[in-house]
Amino acid sequence: MSILSELDSVKKELQEVLKEVSIVPIEWKDGKLRWIDVTSLPWEERYVESSDIYRVAEAIKRLEIRGAPAIGVTTALAVAMVAYNSPNNKDEMMKNIEKAVEILSHTRPTAYNLFWALNIMKKTFYESIDLSPQEIKEKLLSKALKIQIEDIKNNLKMGEIGEKLIQDGDTILTHCNTGSLATAGHGTALGVIKTAWKNGKKIKVIATETRPLLQGARLTAWELKKEGIPFKLITDNMVGIVMMKEMVHKVFVGADRILRTGHVINKIGTYGIAVLASYHKIPFYAVAPTSTFDLTTSPEDVIIENRDESEVTTVLNKLRIAPEGTSAYNFAFDMTPPELVSGIVTEKGIVEKDYESNIKKLFE
Questions:
Q1: Dihedral, CA of residue 169, residue 170, residue 176 and residue 179, to nearest 10
Q2: Which residue positions does UniProt flag as site: Transition state stabilizer (predicted)?
Q3: Class of the 157-363 domain?
Q4: Would you state the pLDDT for residue 275?
Q5: Catalytic residue among 256, 294, 308, 354
Q6: Is 137 annotated as contributing to ligand binding?
Q7: What is residue 3's predicted lDDT score, i.e. its pLDDT?
Q8: Which of 77, 149, 165, 172 is the most buried (most CB within 10 A)?
Q9: Does the pLDDT at position 1 exceed 90?
């Protein structure tokens, strides 16, 4: 099969896969990327288009595009975009791609899918170096679209696998946003919840607001409302009381990085929820594709992103809630140790305890 024929085939497959999802947060548009600016939700469903690598990097930094799988898909498409818009000169194209990789690699330090996708795109480029410039462009676009397809398929598969952990009548607590807006479509933890609902299970959801940027209140509530799934929104500090009152049967969260040891790095507040779930004997599950697994970094070496303190001292940079000059911590993620995790749902199955051994088997 020629490279052009392969690209045409991949594009057709993508169109078929997109029929399976209700929200498409990131798309390829003839040399441009088009994405939902999630910072505008729930007030406005705003789309942005750009072919500028600096604008795409800014969108990732500013959390217009967020969620580890969505960031991975975006970075793959962004590298393809840079190649697509480069002159038909290999040296020029190589410089542009290397510059793009450098720019994108400094956007979010914790989300592992970012680096996973960049490594795949770099490898694809150097393996294609003997092809013509046009064929290299087609090869990179084909690979990026395959990453997008794979993410959607993996999410749908995780939904099928994970929903078996949910019983009819369960109330599930979830944190941050792990739905279509955090992925290429359908979602990870929220994808499991959506699948259970579509399969007829009468479930309810408790969504945390997820301070300081309110991804639960703004985004998860928006997605749950669109899907028609019954839910209640709570402040982050209500988790303890709803568990004490036996209002929660299970916890499902996503992950921005999972280590070979089973440590789950996720949105700030996840660790506290896991501690409370353990105390109240409530199963706590993480849901993530294998592209989120980091098999080389040790727990003590994980870089936890520390964002601008203004996100804490204001509400969405619009309303100041602390005195002028107040200093704040703003860790964007925390790390949940494996002993607090009941299981990890992946597209290859559910990883159970003795995580170091079972994660190793997962990748064998």
A1: -60
A2: 176
A3: alpha beta
A4: 98
A5: 256
A6: no
A7: 84
A8: 77
A9: no
15 annotated binding-site participant: no
Question: CA dihedral in degrees (62, 66, 72, 75; nearest 10)?
Answer: -30
Q: Who contacts 292 (Cβ-Cβ below 8 Å, separation ≥6)?
A: 68, 69, 112, 113, 116, 255, 256, 257, 258
- What are the phi and psi torsion angles at 331 (to 5°)? -70, 130
Find tokens 């860790």 and name the residue.
331
Annotated binding residue 66: yes
CATH topology of domain 3-156: Four Helix Bundle (Hemerythrin (Met), subunit A) (1.20.120)
**Cα angle, residue 350 at apex, residues 346 and 353 outer, rounded to 5°:** 120
The residue type at 120: I
Residues 233-279: tens digit of each pLDDT: 999 999 999 999 999 999 999 999 999 999 999 999 999 999 999 99
256 is catalytic: yes
Instruction: Write out the DSSP string of 251-282.
Output: EEE--SEEETT--EEEETTHHHHHHHHHHTT-
Q: Which structure tokens are listed for 8?
A: 């045409």
Residues 339 and 251: their CA atoms lie apart, in Å, by 15
238 contacts 245 by C-beta, under 8 angstroms = no
What digits encode the pLDDT tens for the residues 145-180? 999 999 999 999 999 999 999 999 999 999 999 999
Residue type, 137: K
Structure tokens at 340: 């607090």
Domain locations in the chain as residue ranges: 3-156, 157-363
